[in-house]
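Below: protein 1.
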Amino acid sequence: MTDANPSAPEPAPLDLRAVAAGIERTNELLTRVLAEVATTPSTHAVFVDAGYVYAAAGRLVAGTEDRRAFELDAEGLIEAFIDKARTIFPDSRLLRVYWYDGARRRIHTPEQQSIAELPDVKVRLGNLNANNQQKGVDSLIRSDLESLARHRAISDAVLIGGDEDLVSAVEAAQGYGARVHLWGIEAAGGRNQAEPLLWEVDSQRTFDLDFCKPYVSRRTGYESFGEAVARGPAPSRDDVRFVGARVAAQWLGSRGHDSLSELLPGHPYLPGTVDQELLVEAESLLGLSLRGHADLRRALRDGFWDHLRMQF
């Protein structure tokens, strides 16, 4: 047999020198890329739940969570957070500080406008309902944390907050390789950060009274609602716990054990509607607002759960 196509051209001889030169150029390119990656500093961002900061710092320094009763030097506190992050992440650059707060119809207050004008600070607003409760802030934190981690814009995230709803934000960021560091403010009594949140983060840090005191000042002449109602000593935790049990008995009597079985899987947390009912009824029985007393609100919930769990 003869070749099928005797006229086909012979393949060109392999130019080994050209191949070697191509490989060398590729190696040089990879070396430059790796060197650039090695010298590029890591990046961190600070995510601040302003509602948590106001409540925790106000309670610790001024004895109340009522924003109207004290002034917070937000600019000074943000700068202190930046300085602290700089010492903890010396080889990392700051992307920016995210300041999450609530406002009616998401319209900046004058104070929020001044914070938004600070360098390296981004103000993100959730809504503020009729009870002055923030809505949508946790979802904003999760969205920003997850997006920045997914796009490798940050390697470390400092989260200043305490709500259990932030657990999903932490998990989302960690899923993309970012490390999340939880910072908190010392609780005047008990704890002001949810345990599931403490369990999920990569590190924890708490700021004490000495750290917070320069940035919080009590407004002279202002008296919060709770102080105006009860000028005498505040009730003890045991007193409030008893009231919580009493409200639980009323709640159980009106709704029955079927409702109880729906609550138990969520222990120690109450649905928002039940928690609000508990607070309103307890304040009516005590003749005292508990809005500025986080430790007493925790005692109230403990008493509520104590009674419910005794039914099984």
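Below: protein 2.
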Amino acid sequence: MHSTKISVIVPSYNGAHKLPNILKALEAQTIQDFETVVVVDGSTDNTREVLEGTQWKLKGLNVVYRQNGGRAVARNAGVEAAHGDLLVFFDDDVRPIPECLALHVQHAVAKPHTILVGPPFEEISKMKTDFQLFRAYLSRTWLPAEGYGLIPNAQPFITAADFSLSKSLFDQLGGFDKRLNDAEDFDLAVRAVQQQVPIYFNKDAVVWHDDFVTCRLMIKRHRQYRQSHLMLQTLKPDLYKHFVQYEPAPIGTAKKTIYWFFSQKFWLWSIDKFNWLRILPKKVRYKIYNIVLTGYSVYFINKKI
């Protein structure tokens, strides 16, 4: 384990308020023999002042400033600046638990030429609204594998917020597709499956995701993600002939009517402004949140919010 050179890569755009959290979390890792490459992707906030105005305790901190190119380009730029044999990718709005990096290294030593993915969970104690608690619940309901294990090839999955692979494997896969600014991690996962590269999941390799969303913001993100998949489908139409987990499920008239009923601004106002739904049992209100989110994000994506 000690002979593995590790590079942690963190892309960031206007992340001055987020970067201190992840850098402090990296300072608290149980292993400290690694370099950190922060790629500032054309930020227009005070990121430079935050990074250069603090004495960080990290042994190797390399900050790369570049013009804005999007997340895929920024991550590729981080790899170009990295010197490690093992690449560990984190987003700038996460805080890896102290053991997270060690778990990535442990996996790399035990199973070289594979990919390890960890879960970005919202920290329950930091959630401020009932919808944020629902968001944290959603993160925990779908896991690509039980505990520690292989992710099925039929449903390729990588989250760029928390995953690792060797530099040689990253080069073999061709890195991130620079044309993509979202769904780039799904595209990389598909290419890994196509090249018969195993993708593993470790539920214990947690990063805390500081994502304090509203229902409206989450709908916007889901719509953007859907547009990114449509763009990816245009660029690589064959990809979606084999991997369809992100395609909306067909529904009948009755279900569509229910989704239409809950895709009204009244429900958004109810959730984000004055959440009277809190008087309902958790199971019921979480069901309503999910219907509102799905209706606006999947079946009525052009409806104004």
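The radius of gyration is 20 Å.
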